[in-house]
Amino acid sequence: MPSVIVNNVKINYIEQGAGDEAVIFVHGFSAASGNWRWVLERLPKEYHAYAIDQRGHGQSDKPGSYQLTELAEDIYGFSRELGIGRFTYVGHSMGGTLGLRFALDHPDMLKASMLVGHFPVHEWMTPDMQAPILAMTGTSDYPSAMKVMFGSPEMIRGVLGSMFATPPSEELMNEMIEYAMVTDPEAIVACFTWMLSSGLEPRLGDIRVPTLIVVGAKDPSSPDASKRDANAIKGGRFELFEDAGHFIPIESPQKFVDLLVNIIEDVSKA
């Protein structure tokens, strides 16, 4: 697996294709670049695709600092180090929320953004939703609860399994548990802290990059809040996958790729 040094952090990545259309895939919380393989194997080979392991995740370095701005600058630095021109950003879950920040900080780098199952910046995680998880983990705040949960294989199994519309295979679940267990626990806390309160809501109207927000109807996070995010972006679009949960790139990869190809083609014609 190749790697590149970005902001003094080694970032590992998958690369395929060799065309002029560049696409950078950014995984979610406690995941890794391997979560994109169902999409990558269906993506037209004329697209030059890159799927990264974010800092603190997968095989990339774990420097101990995981602020939203740092992760966004890692994407920028990655594109500069590899000589990637304007590209399409595709982010899942945490990677989707990160894509909103990247679009604000580096709009000139983007042709379009496709954000799937992102953590909405409009409030959706209520205290009532957090209470049972705090009680189960014996913690007093939600980021700390996530650190406890994502340090236990059985808790990870329960959390991630509930986010699929159709129960995943044992092989897939074991792979996802492994990704979560190698994630830096400090990244678990830091990333979940900014995902709960990113401060991006007042700035969504400043985004001018063509943006499609995609969410599964059976995603435990709020599709309604995701739709509000899309509506707040000038020219933002919203797409609901009726039969999917949180992991659309795994559950509905061909439909996902078809939608992505349509976005890239539409933007190229504009």
Give a verbal description of the structure.
- The structure is a single chain.
- With 270 residues, this protein is an alpha/beta fold.
- It has a single domain (3-124, 199-269), classed as Rossmann fold (3-Layer(aba) Sandwich).
- It is built from 11 helices and 8 strands.
- Strands 1-2-4-3-5-6-7-8 form an 8-stranded mixed sheet, with helices on both faces.
- Helix 2 packs across helix 3 (94-105).
- The N and C termini lie far apart (36 Å).
- The model has no long low-confidence stretch (mean pLDDT 94).
Q: Which features does this protein show?
A:
270 residues; alpha/beta; Rossmann fold; eight-stranded mixed beta sheet; 11 helices; 42% helix; globular
Stretches where pLDDT falls below 50 for ≥5 residues? none
Rg from Cα = 17 Å
The largest β sheet comes out as: 8 strands, mixed
Distance between the termini: 36 Å
The fraction of residues assigned to DSSP E strands is 15-25%
CATH topology: Rossmann fold
Q: What coarse outline follows from CA principal-axis ratios?
A: globular
Q: Give average pLDDT, whole number.
A: 94
> Strands of the largest sheet, in order across it?
1-2-4-3-5-6-7-8
Helix content: 40-55%
**How many domains would you count in the coordinates?**
1
Q: Which structural class do the helices and strands define?
A: alpha/beta
User: Would you state the CATH class?
Assistant: Alpha Beta
Order of secondary-structure elements: EEEHEHEHEHHHHHEHEHH
What would CATH call the homologous superfamily? Alpha/Beta hydrolase fold, catalytic domain
